[in-house]
Design brief:
The protein contains 14 helices and eight strands. By secondary structure, it is an alpha/beta fold. Helix 1 links the parallel strand 1 and strand 2.
Length: 299
Amino acid sequence: MDLVIVGLGRMGANMCRRLHLAGHRVVAFNRSPEKTHEIVAEGLEGAFSPEEAVGKLPSPRVVWLMVPAGDATESTLEEFAALLSPGDTIVDGGNSDFQDSKRRHALLAERGIRFVDAGISGGVWGLKNGYGTMVGGDVDAVTALEPIFRSLAPEGGYIHCGPAGAGHFTKMVHNGIEYGLMQAYAEGFEILHASEYHPDLAAVAQAWQYGTVIRSWLLELAGLAFVQHGNELPDIRGWVADSGEGRWTVREAIALDVPAPVITMSLLARFSSRQSESYSAKVTAALRQQFGGHAVKSE
């Protein structure tokens, strides 16, 4: 199939490469031309303006967005939609809020343009291993693009989750689960690190990969991190960002009256990681001093 991929970051560029290797014709476009030049040098096709990118495609045209969620996706979607015609399709492969995807589907439908939301998982390893692909949208729009989705995904890794928004909703929950798994591994390794035994954490992670009930790809990556950086992780600061999906998962759990304590606490742990000094802990220490005369530590 022919398609444009917009956004050549860590995910978008490798998706271009994987689809190209699978025999699809990919036109690569990035806002800054340097990344487009890089991928063109590898033998892929590039474009240096939205107009050029869309002009290189036969009808019906497919434009796949791989840009940050929020304002960047909104503005890029509108820019390309203005160049498309009824029957063309825009795929949002970023980590957008599923509510935005439902809204965008309705707005584009008024113009006769199809919209598909694709939750993509695989990170920097996707080129080799494939991308877990969770898709939402109208059946006819999704079915027409299945050769692309099946080329991106490893065997069994593609699913049409339901109507507009379902792909990004499923990816949101996926990432919420990821938050909880990562936090559990992190806490377990901290207990091992703090113990009197001081085991080789890379060796522990590797051993746990064989026969144990907690073996996983995330555990394999933990082992790689300890190999690269050592037990103390001396060159990594314990500051953890969140890109939105964990917050949205907690928001939807609350809206649906679903208890999700593990995912919620893993999100709050990320907030805690960004504090050099906890103000709430200061208040707690001050209160203990007031009611019980407990000692406090000065700064």
